[in-house]
Amino acid sequence: MKLARQICSCAATIFLMFSASIAAAQTLSVAVAANMQYVFDDIKAEFKKETGHEVQAVLNSSGKFVTQIMNGAPFDVFLSADMEYPEHLYAKGFTTAAPKVYAYGSLVLWTMKNLDLSQWQSLLASDSINKIALANPKTAPYGREAMRALSFYKLDGKVQSRLVFGESISQTNQYIHSGVADLGFTAKSVVSSAEMKGQGKWVELPPASYQAIAQGAVILKHGKETKAALAQQFYDFLYSAKVRAILERNGFILP
């Protein structure tokens, strides 16, 4: 009888240890707007350092994520490059609450070639430029605002035939960095990152030429249903002083 109790006690202990191990090993799945490509590495590293939890990031355009989430993609948290997409998800019941701005992004024109960007408007309109890269304006907020800036300067008609669209800002960056495109529009967070700092030349577009790029985050229903505590912990961390410092260091404007 005593041996049976010892066996039961040992089994219970092993079960509790196993359960704790499973809980500790949970990985949060985060859908991350592609303009956060480099800065998010710093955020998730800091989160692991502080909490011990892993974060798995998937990068894509914000618009594509909305489609995936509405079709059942198992993401726990969504970091968008705008507010419209997460607000749409909130209105459709896919999030736990309305989105909250975590940062404001800025647009830049970037090139790896020996081009003079001081007169960038004239440069874009000139015949010397063959390919201009930007993210797909239908799914990527930075692409949408790049088109708005071109329209603001009445350049959209002049450059239309030379535009090369990336599926996301990540692919756009590849076009620019590889030289496939002569120059292109990207996020200031990209050229300010440790990975890209000092590479090529860039100029920041005047904020008046496009709408403010307010980037919002939400906890998704999947996160609430499967990893509620961890999803909330990461969401709160996103608005902490540590993350704000990381965002500011990488070219974002803080709310």
How would you describe the overall organization of this protein?
- The chain has 255 residues and is α/β, with parallel strands linked by helices.
- It has two domains: 26-104 and 213-249, D-Maltodextrin-Binding Protein, domain 2 (3-Layer(aba) Sandwich); 106-209, D-Maltodextrin-Binding Protein, domain 2 (3-Layer(aba) Sandwich), CATH 3.40.190.
- It has helices at 2-24, 39-51, 62-70, 84-91, 120-125, 141-152, 156-159, 169-178, 188-191, 221-238, 241-249; strands spanning 27-33, 54-60, 77-79, 100-105, 107-111, 132-135, 163-166, 183-187, 201-204, 213-219.
- The strands form two sheets. It has a five-stranded mixed beta sheet with strand order 2-1-3-10-4.
- Helix 2 links the parallel strand 1 and strand 2.
- Helix 3 (62-70) runs parallel beside helix 4 (84-91).
- It is globular and about 55 Å long.
- The N and C termini lie far apart (65 Å).
- Residues 6-23 have low confidence and may be disordered.
How do the helices and strands line up, and which of them pair or pack?
Layout: H1 2-24, E1 27-33, H2 39-51, E2 54-60, H3 62-70, E3 77-79, H4 84-91, E4 100-105, E5 107-111, H5 120-125, E6 132-135, H6 141-152, H7 156-159, E7 163-166, H8 169-178, E8 183-187, H9 188-191, E9 201-204, E10 213-219, H10 221-238, H11 241-249
Parallel strand pairs: 1-2, 1-3, 6-7, 6-8
Antiparallel strand pairs: 3-10, 4-10, 5-8, 5-9
Helix pairs in contact: 2-11, 3-4
Counting DSSP H or I runs of 4 or more residues, the number of helices is 11
Tell me the name of the CATH homologous superfamily of the largest domain.
Answer: Periplasmic binding protein-like II
Q: Note poorly predicted spans.
A: 6-23
Mean pLDDT across the residues is: 91
Biggest sheet statistics? 5 strands, mixed
What structural class do you assign from the helix and strand content? alpha/beta
Report how far apart the termini are: 65 Å
| Run of helices and strands | HEHEHEHEEHEHHEHEHEEHH
CATH architecture title of the largest domain: 3-Layer(aba) Sandwich
Large-scale geometry: globular
Question: Looking across the biggest beta sheet, what order are the strands in?
Answer: 2-1-3-10-4
Indicate the CATH topology of the largest domain.
Answer: D-Maltodextrin-Binding Protein, domain 2
- What is the CATH level 1 assignment of the largest domain? Alpha Beta
Q: How many distinct domains?
A: 2
Number of strands: 10
Strand content: 15-25%
The Cα radius of gyration reads: 22 Å
Helix share, percent: 40-55%
